[in-house]
Design a protein that fits this description.
Length: 253
């Protein structure tokens, strides 16, 4: 079954207001920039986003955030996005902060049909006990706080119950993909992309290099999880911004 899509606009056309979207990437590495820009162009708003972080002020998910299109974020890191911090502290944005490993496992669990799991991460903190600010009020008070989580003891150690994440859509970026939706990710750009791709009811992949068929040993995410494949142009594939460029002393970039 050929899953290729002719344009980014067509690929995201059914992402409507209020949709839940899981988005791959870490910082600006492995981020599906072309698909994010297409969602922005579509006008979809009140989005509920699950991603490690929310990009920077003018790249990645920061484009949607700056336009006021995101209502809720589930993630691990605020990062370098000043607008993210401003909206959160001003009560304009609901934010569920999750330990990074827990976030990855919640996405993977959603993809394999495991509804919940126990983990020691967060035991004895506001992650487990509740009270973590999800949304602030205009006066700076906590308007919505995280609820306490169920605790069970296994072999004498406390564990908290974490629920799986499944989103309406997932957006990922792969280095290579075939027409059947099988994907291969490159080095650190793999990051959250495989588990994000598993967690979408409809997963859309932008692919830098489209091939007829991937060797099974190369596949990082099987096509069973992927419904749409968007081949990128050479210019789109080369667009890989660096979040913070540094060089060694005495060298020039």
């Amino acid at each position: 079954m050929d899953k290729t899509i002719g344009s980014a606009a067509e690929a995201v056309a059914d992402i409507g207001d209020g949709a839940g979207i899981a988005v791959g990437g870490f910082g600006l590495c492995g981020v599906p920039e072309t698909l994010i820009r297409a969602v922005h162009a579509s006008g979809a708003t009140n989005l509920r986003v699950v991603s490690n972080n929310c990009g920077v002020d003018d790249r990645g998910l920061g484009i949607l955030l700056g336009a006021g299109r995101i209502a809720r974020v589930t993630g691990s890191y605020v990062g370098e996005n000043k607008e993210f911090a401003r909206q959160y502290l001003a009560g304009e944005l609901e934010v569920e902060l999750v330990p990074q490993g827990t976030l990855a496992e919640r996405l993977r669990a959603g993809g394999v049909g495991v509804p919940a799991f126990y983990t020691p991460a967060g035991v004895g903190t506001q992650i487990g006990d509740g009270g973590l600010p999800w949304r602030y009020g205009p006066d700076g008070s906590v308007a919505v706080a995280s609820p306490p989580k169920e605790v069970r003891v296994f072999d004498g150690r406390d564990y908290i119950l974490e629920t799986a994440i499944v989103c309406d859509f997932a957006l990922v970026r792969a280095e290579r993909g075939d027409r059947y939706g099988n994907l291969a990710f490159a080095r650190s750009a793999r990051n959250f992309n495989p588990v994000v791709g598993m967690a979408g009811r409809i997963t859309i992949a932008e692919v830098e290099h489209l091939v007829d068929a991937l060797d099974p040993d190369e596949v990082d995410l099987p096509g069973i999880f992927v419904q749409r494949v968007l081949p990128l142009t050479p210019e789109q594939a080369a667009d890989k911004p660096v979040e913070r460029r540094t060089v060694a002393a005495g060298r020039t970039s």
